[in-house]
Amino acid sequence: MVAEAPRESRHDEIEAIVEAKDGGVKPVRDEANKYTVVGAAERSTFANWLTPVEEHFVCHRNDIPDGDVDAWTVSLTGQVEATLSVSDIADEHPTVAVAHTMECAGNGRGQHDPETGSVQWGFEAAATAIWTGAPLGSILRDHGVESTEGKWLTAVGGDPADGDDVFARSIPLEKATDDCILAFEMNGETLPREHGYPIRLIVPGWYGVNNVKWVEELRVTDSMVGQGSLDRPGEHAYWQQEAYRIHPQETDPDPNETIETVDTWEQLEGAVDHPYTFDANVMSVIGSPDGESPVTPKADGTVDIRGVAWAGDDAVDRVELSTDRGDTWDDAELFGPDYAGAWRLFRYGWDAALGRHTLVSRATDELGRRQPATISAPDAWGEVLENDEFPWNEGGYAANAYEPNGVTVEVRSADDSTENE
Ligand SMILES: Nc1nc2c(c(=O)[nH]1)N[C@H]1C(S)=C(S)[C@@H](COP(=O)(O)O)O[C@H]1N2
Ligand SMILES: [Mo]
C-alpha cells in the first residue's frame, strides 16, 4: 500500500475518543499514523455479550464530518432516485434494532509474522452492540426496488477523503434488503460522532469495513463499485477492489464487477481469487480469566472460563477449550442470546490444577469450518487452510487463528491468596 503523510489531527482525535470513552478503549499501534484507531482496553470486554459504547473499538481513515450535520441527507442513486433527510429515514419506516458483532477485517493483523503494515491489532477490534434504525429493505422497496437478483448496493461515506479515495463499499442487494439497516442509535444512545452520526449502514455479521459510517449515498446497480462508477470526482475503487482484499505478497488483485460467492471463507477456499472481506470468519476470544492477576478456584476446585464466539452470517456450532495450549480439548457450553450476526457466549468449568496454564479456545461454525491454529508463513498460499493455518496475507486481513489469542493464567490456592491479603 502507498504510504501517505501522517496527519496532524490524528493524535488529537484519538485522545479525544479515549477520553470520551473513559478508559474503556486504548490506542493501537499504527506505524504510518493513517487511521483513527482505538481497541478494547481489557480482555474482559469479551466476557460479556453486550459491548458498552465505551468499550467498542473505533476505526476510520478520514476525518469525521463536522459542520452542519443537521442538514445531512442520503441520496439514493443508480436504479433509484431520491434524497432523504435523517428524519425521513427515521419517521417513514419501522424502527428496528439489530444485534451486530462488528469486527475490523484487520483484527489479528498484528499476529502476522513478518509484520504487515498498517494497524497492529491483536484481538481488540471486535464488539457487539444493538443498533437501532430503519430497515434498508423498507427504504429501497418504497423507492421502487423489487428484484435483488445479481444487484449490488454501494454505500458512500460523507467523510472528507484522505487523498482522492472516496470511501465506497458494495454489498449484494440481497444482503442489503435482508437484514441491513440505516442506524441512528447505538445501544439505545444517539450514535456517537465517531461511530457514524448522524447515520450509518449496519451489515449484521460482516466485517467492519462494510458498515459505512456517515452514509451520504446509496447506489443500486448491476455491479460492485469500480473506478468511474460514481458521479463524483476522485478514486472510487480503492476501498472495494484494492484494500481489504486477501492476497499474497506483491499481488495486485484484479477488480471484479460481480462475484457469485459472497461468504468470505468460501472465497478463501478457492471460489474467488483474492477474496473480499465480507462476512466474518469463525472466531472466538476468551474474556475471563484475563491473565492479569492470579485466579483462585472455587470451593469445588473449578475456575469459570467465559468468552465469545462468532462466525459472520453463519451460526457458531461448537466452541472447544484447551487449558494446555492446544494439546487436549474439551467442549465448552454455548449460552445466552442467539441472534444471527452476533456472537454467542461460551463457558467452561475448568478443573484447575495449581500453576501456570495457557488457555486457548477454538470455534467451529455450522458449516464445519474451524478456526486454524496459526497464521502461515508469507510464501505459503493455497493449501494452508487444510494444514490448520490461516494464510498470511499482505493486508493482514480476516485472520482467525486461535493460538495467538491464548491467555496465560496462574492458578493459586485459596490459602496463598489469603496470605497475601
Ligand atoms: N465512512 C467510513 N466508514 C467506515 C470507515 C471509514 O473510514 N469511513 N471505516 C470502516 C472500518 S475499516 C471499520 S472496522 C468500521 C469500524 O466501525 P466503528 O468505528 O463504529 O467501530 O467502520 C467502517 N466504516
Ligand atoms: Mo476495519
Automatic annotation (TrEMBL):
GO biological process, one term: sulfur compound metabolic process
Protein's UniProt keywords contain Ligase: no
Domain Moybdenum cofactor oxidoreductase dimerisation: 277-373
Keyword entries, A-Z: Metal-binding, Molybdenum, Oxidoreductase
Domain Oxidoreductase molybdopterin-binding: 63-223
CDD domains found in the cross-reference section: SO_family_Moco_dimer
InterPro entries: Ig_E-set, MoCF_OxRdtse_dimer, Mopterin_OxRdtase_euk, OxRdtase_Mopterin-bd_dom, OxRdtase_Mopterin-bd_sf
Gene Ontology molecular-function annotations: heme binding; molybdenum ion binding; molybdopterin cofactor binding; sulfite oxidase activity
Cofactor dependency: Mo-molybdopterin
Name of the protein described by the UniProt record: Oxidoreductase molybdopterin binding protein
